């Protein structure tokens, strides 16, 4: 059917030929239809976000397991450089786990338990400590030039 086909106007389908259908003329019905459509879109978006959270969490678990397996299978093929790179990757994944878990904790996921991110609770606690210590340490460190300018102000130019 064509979009401009007159059948979409419901003409002649009702017994009362003079009255227009409510969805066409009643503002409250039109507003209700819009609200219902918006509610449906919100439910769809919430389901999509929930799936995305599960996918993200599953990806992190798989990456963590791969790095963990590579580190624990310390064979003759792993040189110190490779072990270092694995440790760096592990720290990056731990940082992601800490940040992601905090930011998506309010989003439910049907696929995985909310605490199944890969790292153990002790590793997560250590990662949280590092994350917050590093992010707040910069606030308390003096900036270069501040101490030297304070010292120059204390000196009397007449001396």
UniProtKB/TrEMBL annotation:
Organism: Punctularia strigosozonata (strain HHB-11173) (White-rot fungus)
Lineage: Eukaryota, Fungi, Dikarya, Basidiomycota, Agaricomycotina
UniProt-recorded name of the protein: Uncharacterized protein
């Amino acid at each position: 059917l064509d979009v401009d086909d007159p059948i979409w106007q419901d003409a002649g389908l009702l017994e009362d030929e003079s009255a227009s259908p409510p969805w066409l003329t009643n503002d409250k019905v039109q507003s209700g239809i819009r609200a219902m459509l918006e509610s449906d879109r919100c439910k769809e978006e919430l389901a999509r976000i929930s799936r995305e959270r599960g996918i993200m969490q599953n990806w992190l678990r798989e990456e963590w397991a791969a790095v963990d397996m590579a580190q624990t299978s310390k064979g003759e093929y792993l040189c110190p450089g490779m072990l270092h790179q694995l440790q760096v990757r592990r720290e990056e994944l731990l940082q992601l786990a800490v940040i992601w878990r905090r930011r998506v904790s309010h989003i439910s996921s049907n696929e995985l338990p909310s605490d199944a991110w890969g790292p153990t609770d002790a590793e997560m606690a250590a990662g949280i400590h590092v994350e917050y210590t590093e992010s707040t340490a910069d606030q308390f460190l003096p900036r270069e030039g501040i101490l030297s300018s304070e010292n120059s102000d204390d000196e009397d130019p007449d001396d």
